[in-house]
Design a protein that fits this description.
Elements (H helix, E strand, L loop, with lengths): L18 H11 L8 E4 L4 H17 L3 E7 L6 H15 L2 E6 L9 H19 L4 E3 L4 H13 L4 H4 L5 E3 L4 E3 L7 H11 L15 H14 L4 H29 E3 L5 E4 H6 L2 H15 L8 H13 L4 E5 L2 E5 L3 E6 L8 E3 L4 E4 L3 E5 L8 E5 L1 H8 L12 H5 L2 E5 L2 E5 L4 E2 L8 E6 L14
Parallel strand pairs: 1-2, 1-4, 2-3, 4-6
Antiparallel strand pairs: 5-6, 7-8, 8-11, 9-10, 10-11, 12-15, 13-14, 14-19, 15-16, 16-17, 17-18
C-alpha cells in the first residue's frame, strides 16, 4: 500500500486500495477518539481479510488498539480450523484475536438469517463487555449492489432501496462499513499485492441461498454494461433521499408518538392522517419494526395496506404485522409486541448485559454466587402466576403488553419482572439492574448515513 499521505483522487481505480484512500473513508465515518479501542469482524474471506489488513495498518499509524472477532457458527466441519487460521494471520499482523462460538442447537430453517442474527449478537455482546463502541464490518460496493437488487426484487420502497448505511447503530455498538465504495475485485488485488492469503467460503457459490442467486444476477448485469458500481450508485441516491425523509419522520415522531418504557407505543391518529402519506408510512413501519422486535421494517405492500386502513378504514381496527399488534381507535393507534410469537430465551450471567428479543437491554447486578438464570417473555401463564403480587400502580399496562415483558427465570420459576416491580420471595435482593426498551433511529441518533 502506498503512503498515508497519497490523495485518494490519485489512486488507481483498478489497483490496490491505498492508505490515503482508506484514511479518507475513516475520516468520513469518524471521528474516533484517540483512546478508542476498535473491533473488526473477520471471517477469513477476502473482503474481511482486506478489511483487517487496511484497518490494522490505520490503527497502528494512529495509535489505536484493534481486536479481530471471528464467529465460529459450527455449521461446517472446517469452521474451527478456519477460525484458528484467522488467528495465525492476526498474530502476524500484531492484532489481538477472539473466537466467538455459536453454541446450542441450530435451527432447521432460515439458517443464514439466524446465523447472521447470532453473529451480530455475539459480537455486540463481546464489544459491550470490553467497552468497545465501534465494530467494523467488510461490506463492499458489490454487497451494496446485491442488497439493492435483493430489496428491489422484494418490492422495497425508497428506504429499503437505500441499502446499507456507512454507519448504523445497534443497542450497544456502532457498525461501520468503510469499504462500501470499494469493489470486491480491488480488495482481492489489495490482498495479492500484500501477499496475504484468504479463505474461500463454499457458501458463496451455493445457489440455494438467495444472496448467491442475486450475486449471479449482478454478474449478468455487469456483462451487459451495468456495473456493480452503477447499481450501488443508485442505492446512494436513495440513501440521500432516505436521510432527508428520516429527518421529517423524526419531526413527525416528536409531534405524534408516545413511546412507553414497557415496549409499546401510541401514535396520534389525526396527526398521522394530516401528515405527508409517505412520511406517515415510514413512521408507522419503523415503529412496527421496533415494537415487533424486527431488524427490518415490513414489506412496503403490507405497510401500504395497513396505512390505507388507518386513513380510510373503520374507526376501530386490529391487525398484526411484523411481529406486532396494531390496534386503532378513533384517537390513537397503539402498537405492541405480539406475545404469541416470542420464543426468544437467552441465558444471562451476573454483571452482564444482553439484548433480548431485539427490544430490551437487560442488565443483571453483579454477584459472587448465583445459579444460572435466563431471560424470556413473561407470557399469559407467567402473568397469572404473579398477578396477585403485583401492585395496582402497574395494572395500567395493557394486558397483552405485560405478556411480552422480559422476565428472569431459573428452572422455570419467575424470579423478577423489572417493569412490574415484581421480585419472587425466593430471592432476597434484586437480580436485575434494569431492563431498558431500546429505541433506534429514526427516533434516536442521526439519520441514514450515506457512504
Amino acid at each position: 500500500m502506498t503512503d498515508w499521505g497519497t490523495p485518494a483522487t490519485l489512486c488507481d481505480p483498478d489497483g490496490p486500495v491505498t492508505r490515503g484512500e482508506f484514511a479518507k473513508q475513516m475520516t468520513v465515518a469518524g471521528p474516533f477518539p484517540a483512546s478508542a479501542s476498535l473491533a473488526v469482524a473477520v471471517s477469513g474471506g477476502a473482503d474481511s481479510m482486506a478489511m483487517l489488513l487496511l484497518l490494522s495498518d490505520w490503527a497502528r499509524a494512529t495509535g489505536r488498539s484493534l481486536t479481530a472477532l471471528t464467529v465460529d457458527h459450527g455449521l461446517r466441519p472446517e469452521s474451527a480450523d478456519e477460525a484458528r487460521q484467522v488467528g495465525r494471520w492476526c498474530a502476524l499482523l500484531g492484532v489481538s484475536h477472539e473466537v466467538l462460538r455459536w453454541s446450542g442447537e441450530k435451527p432447521a430453517h432460515r439458517i443464514q438469517e439466524e446465523a447472521r442474527r447470532a453473529r451480530y449478537d455475539l459480537m455486540e455482546s463481546w464489544c459491550a463487555e470490553h467497552d468497545i463502541e465501534n465494530l467494523f464490518v467488510a461490506h463492499t460496493e458489490d454487497d451494496q449492489a446485491e442488497t439493492f437488487l435483493f430489496r428491489m426484487s422484494r418490492g422495497s420502497g425508497p428506504a429499503g432501496l437505500a441499502a446499507m448505511p456507512l454507519v448504523s447503530y445497534r443497542a450497544r455498538v456502532r457498525i461501520i462499513r468503510p469499504l462500501l465504495t470499494i469493489g470486491r475485485q480491488r480488495l482481492e488485488t489489495t490482498l495479492k499485492a500484500a501477499g496475504q492469503a484468504w479463505v474461500e467460503d463454499p457458501g458463496n457459490t451455493d445457489r440455494r441461498y438467495a444472496r448467491v442467486r442475486v450475486r449471479n444476477r449482478l454478474a449478468e448485469l455487469d456483462t451487459n454494461g451495468i456495473s456493480p458500481a452503477a447499481v450501488a450508485g443508485t442505492a446512494r441516491i436513495f440513501g440521500r433521499l432516505r436521510a432527508a425523509r428520516e429527518n421529517q419522520v423524526a419531526r413527525l415522531a416528536v409531534e405524534a408518538v408516545t413511546i412507553y418504557p414497557e415496549g409499546y407505543a401510541d401514535i396520534d391518529r389525526m396527526a398521522l392522517t394530516r401528515a405527508d402519506p409517505e412520511i406517515a408510512m415510514l413512521l408507522t413501519s419503523a415503529l412496527i419494526a421496533q415494537t415487533g422486535g424486527r431488524e427490518f421494517a415490513p414489506k412496503r405492500a403490507c405497510t401500504v395496506s395497513l396505512f390505507r386502513a388507518l386513513i380510510v378504514g373503520p374507526e376501530t381496527i386490529t391487525r398484526t404485522l411484523g411481529g406486532c399488534v396494531i390496534s386503532a381507535s378513533a384517537a390513537r393507534v397503539r402498537l405492541w409486541r405480539e406475545p404469541g410469537t416470542i420464543s426468544h430465551e437467552i441465558p444471562i450471567s451476573s454483571g452482564m448485559s444482553a439484548i433480548w428479543d431485539r427490544r430490551f437491554l437487560v442488565t443483571l447486578r453483579s454477584a459472587s454466587r448465583r445459579a444460572a438464570v435466563s431471560v424470556s417473555a413473561l407470557g399469559r401463564g407467567g402473568w397469572e402466576a404473579i398477578a396477585a403480587d403485583i401492585c395496582s400502580d402497574f395494572r395500567h399496562i395493557p394486558g397483552p403488553v405485560r405478556y411480552g415483558l422480559p422476565a428472569i427465570r431459573r428452572e422455570g420459576c419467575i424470579l423478577q419482572v423489572w417493569h412490574l416491580d415484581y421480585r419472587s420471595s425466593r430471592i432476597s435482593e434484586n437480580i436485575m439492574e434494569n431492563a431498558v426498551f431500546k429505541v433506534r433511529t429514526p427516533f434516536s441518533g442521526p439519520p441514514f448515513w450515506v457512504a
